[in-house]
Amino acid sequence: xxxxxxxxxxxxxxxxxxxxxxxxxxxxxxxxxxxxxxxxxxxxxxxxxxxxxxxxxxxxxxxxxxxxxxxxxxxxxxxxxxxxxxxxxxxxxxxxxxxxxxxxxxxxxxxxxxxxxxxxxxxxxxxxxxxxxxxxxxxxxxxxxxxxxxxxxxxxxxxxxxxxxxxxxxxxxxxxxxxxxxxxxxxxxxxxxxxxxxxxxxxxxxxxxxxxxxxxxxxxxxxxxxxxxxxxxxxxxxxxxxxxxxxxxxxxxxxxx
Length: 257
Known about the structure:
Elements: H1 2-43, H2 56-72, E1 110-115, E2 118-122, H3 124-128, E3 133-140, E4 146-155, H4 156-162, E5 173-177, E6 184-188, H5 189-192, E7 198-203, E8 206-207, E9 217-219, E10 234-238
Parallel strand pairs: 1-10
Antiparallel strand pairs: 1-2, 3-4, 4-7, 5-6, 5-10, 7-8, 7-9
InterPro entries: OxRdtase_Mopterin-bd_dom, OxRdtase_Mopterin-bd_sf
Protein name: Molybdopterin-dependent oxidoreductase
Pfam families: Oxidored_molyb (PF00174)
């Protein structure tokens, strides 16, 4: 009698396992089909033609994230800094877009567009006369790597004071473009005026290497490296979002940390 009972129990157990396997397989197929349907639906949504770089539903999510980051942003929120000994000697290069090989450093001057028809040409020597600030922080790339790096230059907020840009700093954004026009970013004004944002001309205590944006680049620790434009050619102010290289390719405009 016991043997019969055991065999019956085994049959029931086998049936349960079979039923669970079939159920799990059906659920997997439904979820897989749902994922494909969602992907195709989103892919066929508008977006690319509007120069957002990504379909509208995904862009709305990124814009929602930006609204949250903007509300919690504070000038008192500082990126962690490190001693000079922690900085790497060989700094990784994060991209070369905008680093045209025909660039002649002797002819470089920063084009500061105060308003339409009002542009100042500022030399590196002029910028170096302003109060110098050094920051050693963990530079984060959107590709997933980071390095503790040593940068020096003038705070953007000090630059604004020195060139009497109080009216311009009331705008919502600054726009930065490389001399060859190949790379461009838009930065919200609160992030630009953050006390750790630098117009940077030195790395590890020496002039910037060419591949790191000589003679002048942006360093902005509150954002991913895609916003730290190398080799600034033109700096302008706007209440409208300036064009942004990676935004047009589907990335987050704000790119905050």
